[in-house]
Here is the input.
Amino acid sequence: MKKIDLNSILSEDLNSKLNRINTGNLEQHVLDLFYKTALTVPAYKKFLSENNVDISLVQSLNDFQKLPFMTKENYIKKYPVAETCRGGDIANLDFVSVSSGSTGTPTFWMRDAEDEINIAERFEQILTECFVPMTASNLCVICFPLGTWVGGMFTTNCVRYLSMKGYKLTLVTPGNNKEEILRVIKDFAENFERVILFGYPPFLKDVVDTGIAKGIDWKKFDNKLVMAGESFSEDWRSLMSERLVINDELTSFSSMYGTADAGVLANETPLSIKIRKFFSENPALTKRVFGQSRLSTLCQYDPYSRYFEEHENTLLFSGDNGIPLIRYNINDDGGIYSFDEMMAILNEEGCDVLTDLKNEYPDLVIRNLPFVYVFGRKMFTLS
Here is the structure.
């Protein structure tokens, strides 16, 4: 088992990491990830050999973008799980998560603490740059299912790393036990300035509605929601704001694009929410820009954490995990836009979203990170 220098990792500055988009060499970063994986992961060595790939000829991002896709069928299910780990040693990894099985059979995904520490940046960005200003005491209620499923345990671990980093975050983990969640809110939440609910959107609505029916006065708290697992409409966001007495939707919600395969890939920001609201009122423009008139999830992502590509309206991503993934096709319909591309589209439509945000929130950190939009999985066997 490899040792992790927690002191070094927990002292890392979020701003400097997210600023790599301006200061770093993304092409070299992606190539380094490829070489590291090709040379240290037995399954990927075999995969490249079977697809007649000469590692030495991959010298540019253009070469990288010609590499064969990974899928669950041609990679994860084909090779023994140990061979998909670095060094072929499953014992180097200390945690197992299980996917939901939405495409058939649940899959086991190996990871270690370093994976979660890296992904904790997404939660740190949400809690410190999206939910502004940060309050002195925050109760984080983990409403994702616990057990082997990825959501609950992964979220708990990531947020606890942030508490170790010095943020005023207190966790409670009722999981998807609705009665226990409401008992925590009723009997304990008044000790904190802010209540942050983490969970699946339809389930959180059920929790809030049941709480109202049981006499919980949600307006006593500064309520925030962190969600994953399903898209929702802007009408739904407004409805939840009404029921939770949320006055500012842009700085009170963040939906994450997450998977069991590689953790959290991207997250909503006040900027992406404002843009999504604009598109929700312009279905014809939405269809032209995103290919469908229905509203997708729209997030920003750090390409140094998860590198996205678009292929025939399907998303590919690469990332360093317990099981490293290179050009992995997760079968999610969607696509990507650079920051400048998205701003150009909006400006052409007379929407100066940056000026509007800066006027409304002078202290808000606006990152020039790229955008990913997601409609959902292409094939489901379970709904």
Q: What stands out?
A: Confidence is low (pLDDT under 50) at residues 379-383. The CA atoms of residues 201 and 230 lie 7 Å apart. The two ends are 38 Å apart (CA to CA). DSSP finds 16 helices and 13 strands in the chain.
